[in-house]
Amino acid sequence: MNISGLSLKGRVALVTGSSRGIGRAAIRRLAELGADVVVNYRSNEKAAQEVVREAEEFGVRALALKADVSRLSEAERLVRETIEELGRLDILVCNAGVWEGAPVEEMTEELWDNVLGINLKGTWTVCRSSAAQMKRQGYGRIVIISSTAGQRGEANVSNYAASKGGQIAFTKSLATELAPYGINVNAVAPGWVETDMCEDVFEDAEYRRNIEETIPLGRIASADDIALPIVFLCTDWARHITGEILNVNGGSVLCG
């Protein structure tokens, strides 16, 4: 297969939570390969419109749509408006997420529900809303952004780890369910990433150095380090990959 297998021209991609961080980087790379893109955001319209402008520089169609994917009705509207505006939906990247926790005996029901609602339920809502369209097309690529926390656990953020472990199980289940319809479902599991979600942690220089020492490649990932594997899974070069959990963590967590 030649380099044309990387082209996404004519495809439409929706990335949830894409006004910043990994989602923003994924939008740029999808647009670079020719996909028309939808930037989903929950509150920061200004940032979302900036991402739209960045995507349009690649000559593709781009729009920003506000939706809280933890609510099924909003996820359904998000997908419906994507199809109405751009005609189809080929690629779904489930990236919307939050990282908030507490020791288990101090964790409130509200904190538990918020993290599970956005990270895990928000993955289900958009996949549920997209499946029928992808089945009609006989084609689809779904990439779910999980985490190493879902593979090994993480102290004091058991809610976050549970949501990410749930995404991994959901990925494997959905992959087998949707494969007969030409829909591939995979997950990417990042380790530490240089995004605003983690900026408070990285302000402690000593703690940052300790983190870097646990990463065999010796550095914390950039958002683009995660976006590139995400987009690979959306191309024809990954056409025979489904149900896979792709670890992108610099070697810090080695698991099958």
Walk me through this protein's architecture.
It is a single chain. The chain has a seven-stranded parallel sheet, sandwiched between helices. α4 packs parallel to α6. The protein has one domain (3-195, 223-248): 3-Layer(aba) Sandwich (Rossmann fold). The two termini are 27 Å apart. The chain has nine helices and seven strands. The mean pLDDT is 95. α2 (45-56) links the parallel β2 and β3 (62-66). It has 256 residues and is α/β, with parallel strands linked by helices.
Strand order of the largest sheet: 3-2-1-4-5-6-7
Ends distance: 27 Å
State which percent range the strand residues make up: 5-15%
Low-confidence stretches: none
Mean pLDDT: 95
- List how many beta strands DSSP finds: 7
State the CATH superfamily name: NAD(P)-binding Rossmann-like Domain
Shape: globular
Structural class: alpha/beta
CATH topology grouping = Rossmann fold
Instruction: Identify the CATH architecture.
Output: 3-Layer(aba) Sandwich
Tell me briefly what this model is:
This protein has 256 residues and is of the alpha/beta class. It is built from nine helices and seven strands, in the order βαβαβαβαβααβαααβ. The chain has one domain: Rossmann fold.
List the helices and strands and how they pair.
Elements (H helix, E strand, L loop, with lengths): L11 E4 L5 H12 L3 E6 L3 H12 L5 E5 L5 H15 L4 E4 L14 H29 L2 E6 L3 H4 L5 H21 L4 E8 L8 H4 L2 H9 L9 H10 L12 E4 L8
Parallel strand pairs: 1-2, 1-4, 2-3, 4-5, 5-6, 6-7
Helix pairs in contact: 1-2, 1-9, 3-4, 4-6
